[in-house]
Design a protein that fits this description.
The protein is of the alpha+beta class and about 450 residues long. The protein folds into two domains: about 250 residues, BirA Bifunctional Protein, domain 2 (2-Layer Sandwich); about 90 residues, Anticodon-binding domain (Rossmann fold). The strands form three sheets. Strands 1-5-6-11-10-9-7-8 form an eight-stranded mixed sheet. The chain has a five-stranded mixed sheet with strand order 13-12-14-15-16, with helices on both faces. The two termini are about 55 Å apart.
């Protein structure tokens, strides 16, 4: 004998309801559809840049062994000291959510035998990175970067090409008033002497330094120059400058970089305090920002020792990264862009059988690549027509009970306020004809 309804009630599943809704982790915002359209536009510009300059896309895992960053990014860098999200797997491995791309790309370069490819090897990537920091404007814990790396050449032309690519990307995205800040931090031959003098200088000024800088002085004196605190600014101005300590090779390299920048008409200033807190940089370091805003849009530099540090053969390299959220924010603020692709047809169904038929018509329209919108959840014709009107769709296909039984549809021209009955089989053909006459691309 079948169960009676009251048996269902007896066995009803008890669901535990949360008292309040959950929120995304701090500094890790959701990316909603409209913003994703804008991101896609940015990615398209990145891809076009990559294709033109011959970069291949590389995807590395979001998680890597923590020691990759300890070794690559450097144990005294802020990223490793304070900003890494690490976790222990059930098997006991210690992994980190990538806080940047470069060490991962070098790991992949070595692991996949790319060092045997013809040089330079040009790679680009795009994806989320994670840093544990205090969220604020333009600063998140999960943010996206696009990243370009050129491996296997020490030629300064590639330093400038990297800068040029980022500059072009920002220009393509119509971001105006850009300024390139550039500096050199020398190599293993000349940097130690500067570093020693820098340390001595800041030691002599120790009592005026902020607490963070006092600590930086012990771990990585270069990073004292990164300090943004007002109280440390005048001390930085007087500090020894790397440019006065460069070895002949680094001096020549930097001179050539500046000459190339000049000849390309790229707007730059030398910022002697730009050191970019990571341990692996050598020679050129750069950042690009807007002249009317202090926030960096992208940054990078040369890292001639990193491949060797991660177990490969000595391979000079240069690269950089741009922060996608900061680009999104700027574009949203300064430009009005219509991102939605407008549907060309609106499909309306009234009743159960018409809905069934409409699903079939929807598939026919998809195969014909005629971009079609619907609002099947609305039962009333009026509400659906209102929706079509809102989307500014010229052609509406209506399937009512009668049409579903006859295998016909009503084709309504919203602009002319006319409508006619068309055979269901012919609807795609008819729409194609009309859209062609109107000179409208179907997708
Ligand atoms: P970096 O890897 O620190 O050189 O950063 C490269 C670019 O990523 C910066 O110029 C920013 O545009 C972006 N960026 C860095 N940190 C953050 C963050 N916490 N939130 C959003 N964007 C960031």
């Amino acid at each position: 004998m079948g169960r009676r309804p009251k048996d269902y009630m007896k066995n009803k599943i008890k669901r535990v309801k949360m008292k309040s809704i959950l929120r995304a982790p701090k500094g890790m915002p959701d990316i909603l559809p409209e913003e994703n359209l804008l991101r896609r536009k940015i990615f398209k510009a990145v891809e076009e840049m990559a294709n033109f300059y011959g970069f291949g896309q590389i995807e590395t895992p979001i998680l890597e062994e923590t020691k990759l960053f300890l070794h690559g990014t450097g144990p005294t860098s802020e990223i490793v000291q304070k900003q890494m999200f690490t976790l222990k797997t059930p098997g006991g491995d210690i992994l980190a959510l990538r806080p940047e791309f470069t060490p991962n790309i070098i790991r992949a370069y070595l692991e996949n035998g790319m060092s045997n490819w013809s040089k330079p090897v040009k790679l680009f990537s795009w994806g989320p990175v994670f840093r544990y920091e205090q969220p604020q404007r333009g600063r998140y814990r999960q943010f996206w970067q696009c990243n370009f790396e050129i491996l296997g050449s020490s030629d300064p032309i590639y330093d400038v090409l990297t800068i040029q690519i980022f500059y072009n990307l920002l220009t393509e995205l119509k971001i105006k008033n850009l300024l390139i800040e550039i500096n050199t931090i020398g190599c293993d031959n000349c940097r130690p002497i500067w570093q020693k003098n820098l340390k001595n200088y800041f030691h002599s000024k120790q009592k005026f330094l902020c607490l963070d800088c006092k600590n930086r002085l012990k771990t990585n004196p270069l990073r004292t120059l990164d300090c943004k605190k007002e109280s440390c600014q005048s001390l930085k101005e007087e500090a020894p400058k790397m440019i006065d300590y460069l070895c002949p090779e680094c001096r020549k390299h930097f001179k050539q970089v500046l000459e190339f920048l000049e000849s390309m008409g790229l707007p730059y200033v030398i910022n002697h305090n730009l050191v970019r807190g990571l341990d692996y940089y050598t020679k050129t370091v750069f950042e690009i920002r807007k002249t009317d805003d202090n926030i960096a849009l992208c940054g990078g530099g040369r890292y001639d020792y990193l491949v060797e540090m991660l177990g490969g053969k000595s391979t000079p390299a240069v690269g950089g990264a741009a922060g996608v959220e900061r680009l999104v924010e700027l574009i949203k603020k300064s430009q009005k862009i219509d991102l939605f692709v407008k549907p060309k047809v609106f499909l309306i169904a009234i009743g159960e059988l018409p809905k069934q038929k409409s699903l079939k018509y929807l598939e026919l329209l998809r195969k014909a690549k005629i971009y079609t919108a619907e609002s099947f959840a609305h039962e009333s014709l009026k509400a659906q027509l209102r929706q079509a009107d809102k989307l500014e769709v010229r052609y509406v296909v209506i399937v009512g009970q009668k049409e579903a039984l006859d295998d016909t549809v009503i084709l309504r021209d919203m602009k002319a306020s006319t409508q006619e009955v068309v055979s269901g089989e012919k609807i795609v053909e008819e729409l194609k004809k009309r859209l062609k006459n109107d000179n409208i691309n179907i997708i």
